[in-house]
Amino acid sequence: MKFIEWVKERAAEKKCAIVLPESYDGRVAQAAKEIAKEGIAKIVLLSDGEKKIPGEDGLRQEGVEILNYKNNTDFEDLADELYQLRKHKGMSREQAKNLLMDPLYYGAMLVRNQRVDGMVAGACHSTGDTLRPALQIVKTAESIKTVSAYFLMVVPNCQYGSDGVFLFADSGLVEFPSEDQLVDIAAASARSFEQITGQEPIVAMLSYSTKGSAKNKKLEPIISATKRVKERYPNLKIDGELQLDAAVDETVGRMKCKGSNVAGNANVLIFPDLNSGNIGYKLVQRLAKAEAYGPITQGLRRPVNDLSRGCCVEDIVGVVAITCLQV
């Protein structure tokens, strides 16, 4: 069974409700239909009541809920709640109502109030537009200071990682993580890998250097963050700084990093910055023909995930399934 099919099966068992605010995008509407048909999740599409969603009649027949949110009975209550939530930032009641006319903000309020279990958007919005409502309304989880993003990579015919399954972070959000942020990203990524795959995370803090083979002040945050995560989570397998080959290839790992319980076996790869993380996932996706699911957000109280604007229907279905496993 393909990995994503296994994820879909587990998602279906949870019977989650997921809101897709970008219902007028044909890819989103088609994905909603497939998700409902496969029983992966209960889908809520947001309608402005002014025009039809592509394939609307067929969507209703499949059990997709189409919510005319602007005219819904809870609109005024949600607008007042948003005002109470943001008035300390200078927001007026009128501004709250205007913001709630945006389906991304309305969807985030549904997540906050547990009317739905999560939200997936970004097919026709930027990452900033997608995650801003989540950060303002859903907010970060307790004990987490850094919201970050990862890609779940499924590499065909691959002997490395967990039978070709990897988590790459941060590959979508934090540009130049500080030492504190690297600590948060590593810890959150380990939890995410176990949550989605059911397997033990083995975390490599990546660098162009392995265990002091190069000396540079810019390596210090990676080395210090690794030490701090080890101290905070003594049972977590984590090591660094490691070059990519030492992290995933057992032969190289034994040669460069004797005695490490991570070298050669890593399945969670923590990149030093967004440049390397984004380049890395796209290299693997294109050259190794890997499936790349993400960016998946971690660190929020409830799951809100961002799609690539170049996503296809299958990408949306996969990210919805992963979102269910985050609940």
Can you give keywords for this protein?
327 residues, 5-stranded parallel sheet, Rossmann fold, alpha/beta, 44% helix, 6-stranded mixed sheet, 2 domains
Architecture overview:
The two termini are 23 Å apart. The chain contains 13 helices and 11 strands. 44% of the residues lie in helices and 17% in strands. The mean pLDDT is 90. A 6-stranded mixed β-sheet has the order 8-7-9-6-5-10, with helices on both faces. Strands 3-2-1-4-11 form a 5-stranded parallel β-sheet, sandwiched between helices. It folds into 2 domains: 3-139 and 300-326, Rossmann fold (3-Layer(aba) Sandwich), CATH 3.40.50; 148-287, 3-Layer(aba) Sandwich (Rossmann fold). It has 327 residues and is of the alpha/beta class.
Quickly describe the structure.
It contains 13 helices and eleven strands. The protein is an alpha/beta fold and 327 residues long.
Radius of gyration: 21 Å
Q: Would you state the CATH class of the largest domain? A: Alpha Beta
Outline the biggest β-sheet.
6 strands, mixed
Strand order of the largest sheet: 8-7-9-6-5-10
Shape: globular
| Second rung of CATH, namely the architecture of the largest domain | 3-Layer(aba) Sandwich
> How many helical stretches?
13
Number of domains: 2
User: Which stretches of 5+ consecutive residues score pLDDT under 50?
Assistant: none
Distance between the termini: 23 Å
Strand content: 15-25%
